[in-house]
Structures are given as C-alpha cells and as structure tokens.
Amino acid sequence: MSRSSKYPEQFRRDAVELVESSDRPLRQIARELGVNHETLRSWVNKAKEEAAAPVEDPAVTDEVQRLRKQVAELQKEKEILCKAAAYFAKEMDR
C-alpha cells in the first residue's frame, strides 16, 4: 500500500542521487531542497534497501529449483553407490 506524498517520485529519486553523489552533509542538502532531513534520510535508506534487494527473475527461480532437484537425485545416487561399493568390498573379502 503506497502512501501519497507531497513530493513527486522523480523529485525523491533526484534528491537521493544528489545525496549519494555529493560530499555535502545530508542536512545541508535537505535544507537546500526544502525537505525535512529525516524525510530525506528515509528516502536514502529506502533506496539503499531496494538496491540491495535481490531481483526476482522467474527464469532464475525455475533454474534454481531444477538444479536443487538434480542435486538431491545425485546425492541419492551417490548414497546408493557408496552402499553398493561397501557391500561388494565385503563380498570380495570373503
């Protein structure tokens, strides 16, 4: 659910970009833009969280599921082969 803001989305994106590209303090930039510094700080934090969040790609998700299934099958096969090798090693010692 998105709250309406008195600041347009493009203005918020530009303000965040200005904070990230400037060496000036956030408070100074907020003052120059006429925005509360805590509001600007929240925009910056939200942008950082969104940038750090992984992008869900259905193709990647499907591939991961397929590979996990394949790994599980290969682990079962390996377990069976290890048991068979142990069995035949015992048979050879007799």
From TrEMBL:
Molecular function GO terms recorded: DNA binding; transposase activity
Record-linked Pfam families: HTH_Tnp_1 (PF01527)
Residues making up the signal peptide according to the UniProt record: none
Biological-process GO terms, alphabetical: DNA transposition
Protein name (Swiss-Prot/TrEMBL): Transposase
Species, as recorded: Amycolatopsis keratiniphila
Lineage: Bacteria, Bacillati, Actinomycetota, Actinomycetes, Pseudonocardiales
